[in-house]
Write a structure and sequence with these properties.
400 residues, alpha+beta, D-amino Acid Aminotransferase, Chain A, domain 1, Dna Ligase, domain 1, five-stranded antiparallel sheet, four-stranded antiparallel sheet, 20% strand
């Protein structure tokens, strides 16, 4: 299957908007699907890494002659008897504990990024007892769509998008708190854009992919439930998707005034939930060869803003995949799922686990023995000078 360049702007979404209404994440994702995925929505890429995140890293380590030693959930890696680091849970040792502290708390991440001049959506954190304050905050937003998420969440769990009304917030509030170990939720402005994950290895952007919420395409005969069953069957042919079930969120469908029994018209696209995270059934589309240099530079600048962060997945919302001018950073993950890049649903695998092991070994080698084994992609290479300029002049403060 030939993979075409994946480029999209907000034009289609803007055409659908009326009056002062702004494009929504759904409308931007819809443009992407209609332009690039609708005609092949059941034709997933072949190949890719069949192993889970940690196992893929250990397999890459073995290929480089490293010996692994497990200690509970952690792993030590040895190169000719010398420990070169390892994994703390799913996080490589090349990240400091301080970096993990910041990245694990969304409110701290936003504060650090904002002070570094990196654009991030406005938002506010609340505790479980702050319901009245949260309600007052929602009212001040004057109908602008919000995202409610656990302040310390992961894998897209506990996230509710499109929150506008009190009823929306009440449902999202409980959902978010249920998934928060700290008992805190973050209410954040929902900005339009395709969800792009950029992988940072040793401070450099080496791969990029967009993640799209699970969707079905109508044929004029099958209902949404039947199309979802058809999608589940097709996913069995893919090395990664076959082990991840699609989350069909009926409350999400209800807010969009559709039900699982509705029959979609030929070519009509319907998302099944509002979360692009792969654990919720989302699909990854490789963008490494087409992502603009300034987007790679933005991801590198976000990672550089957090001291001790050398390996990360930077999540960026891009309304225009040809430029990072209107992009915003929404999250920084210290243990990003490498299968986003090593086994995309559409596009080429990027051997991210191998790049990580090369960087880990090289980082611990004596300086005179380092061989710069991790090479940035051509796109990231072009971003090098841009990143230096970004760090020198800082990003402009964004107004929302």
């Amino acid at each position: 299957m030939e993979d075409k360049p994946l480029i999209i702007t907000l034009k289609g979404a803007m055409d659908r908007a009326t009056g002062n209404e702004m494009p929504t994440p759904e409308s931007v994702n819809l443009d992407f699907v209609e332009c690039h995925l609708r005609d092949r929505w059941l034709q997933f890429s072949e190949g890719g890494q069949p192993l889970a995140h940690t196992e893929a890293i250990l397999a890459a380590a073995a290929e480089h002659g490293l010996v692994s030693q497990r200690s509970g959930k952690n792993v030590l890696l040895f190169d000719d008897g010398r420990c070169v680091g390892g994994l703390i849970g799913a996080t490589p040792s090349m990240n400091s504990s301080f970096a993990q502290l910041i990245a694990s708390t969304k409110n701290l991440t936003k504060s650090v990024l904002r002070r570094a001049g990196v654009p991030t959506p406005p938002g506010k954190q609340f505790t479980a007892s702050d319901w009245d304050k949260a309600l007052a905050y929602l009212e001040v937003q004057e109908g602008r769509r919000q995202v409610v998420k656990p302040a310390d969440g992961r894998q897209g769990l506990g996230i509710t998008t499109g929150v506008v009304t009190v009823d929306d917030l009440r449902s999202a509030w409980g959902h978010g708190l249920e998934r928060s170990k700290s008992g805190r939720v973050l209410i954040e402005e929902e900005v339009p854009g395709v969800d792009v994950r950029i992988l940072i290895v040793d401070g450099r952007a080496v791969a990029a992919a967009t993640r799209i919420p699970p969707f079905v395409v109508g044929d004029g005969h099958r209902c949404i439930q039947e199309l979802t069953d058809q999608l589940e069957t097709a996913r069995q042919s893919h090395v990664y998707l076959r082990d991840r079930a699609v989350k069909l969120d009926e409350s999400y469908l209800e807010r969009r005034r559709v039900s699982t029994s509705d029959v979609l018209a030929v070519g009509e696209v319907q998302f099944l939930n509002g979360t692009a995270n792969l654990s919720q059934g989302g699909v990854a589309v490789d963008l490494t060869e087409t992502i603009p240099a300034d987007a790679m530079g933005l991801a590198e600048a976000a990672a550089a803003a957090i001291p001790g962060l050398n390996f990360a997945g930077v999540d960026i919302l891009m309304p225009d995949l040809t430029s990072a001018d209107s992009a915003t950073v929404i999250e920084v993950n210290t243990s990003p799922n490498l299968l986003v890049h090593d086994a995309p649903a559409y596009g080429r695998p990027r051997a991210a686990a191998d790049l990580l092991i090369r960087a880990l070994v090289d980082q611990e080698a004596p300086k005179h023995q380092r061989n710069e084994s991790v090479q940035p992609t051509p796109t990231a290479e072009r971003a090098g000078d841009l990143v230096s300029r970004m760090r020198a002049i800082r990003f402009p403060r964004w107004r929302h």
